[in-house]
Amino acid sequence: MKSYILFTTTALIATIAVAYTNLDYRGQPNNTSCTGECYQEYVALNGTAYEIEQRKQALAAEDEFSSIRSLWAGCAACHGQDGQGMAVFPALKGSSADYIENRLYAYKNKETVGSMSSTMWAQAGQLTDKQITTIGKYIETL
Fold first, then answer.
1. From residue 35, how far is each of 24, 31, 52 by CA, in Å?
2. What distance lies between CA 117 and its chain's CA centroid?
3. By C-alpha distance, which of 68, 87, 88, 86 is closest to 139?
4. I need a surface site. Which of 46, 90, 104, 136 has the fewest CB within 10 A?
5. Cα-based distances in Å from 53 to 3, 46, 61
6. How much is the pLDDT for 25?
């Protein structure tokens, strides 16, 4: 019985190995690596990794709020994409930078400002001074 199982398993593995040699996913060629001519075409089209990174940094430098874009996504989840407010979360749109900064510092220091203060304590507690200033300026532009 053991020899039968061993023979069957070996035959199955051999069949799979022969039948699926150089198997391409859904008939498409394997494109997991790009070398030689493929890489030269990629570089001609997109540039080197260094050049790509330089372009990204140049785009970020043009946007003074690029450093807080991902943070704003968290704010927008409750306050709305345009800061218009949602449900129990107040509108931020129309607020001055000073007002926003003062509120964020109050939340960062775990001060109670309103009924939703505890929600903001963790959010503001993670922000740096520079991020607070930038968020204030961003909200002022909404």
1. 18, 10, 18
2. 27
3. 68
4. 46
5. 59, 11, 12
6. 52
The pTM assigned to this predicted structure is: 0.60
pLDDT at 21: 61
Q: By CB neighbour count within 10 A (0-12 exposed, 13-18 middle, 19+ buried), where does 131 fall?
A: middle
Residue ranges for the chain with pLDDT beneath 50: none
Q: What is the pLDDT of residues 104-129, one digit of tens each?
A: 999 999 999 888 899 999 999 999 99
Which amino acid is located at 76 in the chain?
A
CA-to-CA distance for 85 and 88, rounded, in angstroms? 8
Q: Name the token pair of 10.
A: 């070996």
CB 130 within 8 A of CB 66: no
Q: Residue 128: which region, alpha, beta or left (left: phi > 0; alpha: psi -120 to 50)?
A: beta
Q: Which amino acid is at 123?
A: Q
CA 11 vs CA 1, 2, 21, 22, 108: distances in Å: 15, 14, 15, 19, 66
Residues 130 and 137: their CA atoms lie apart, in Å, by 11
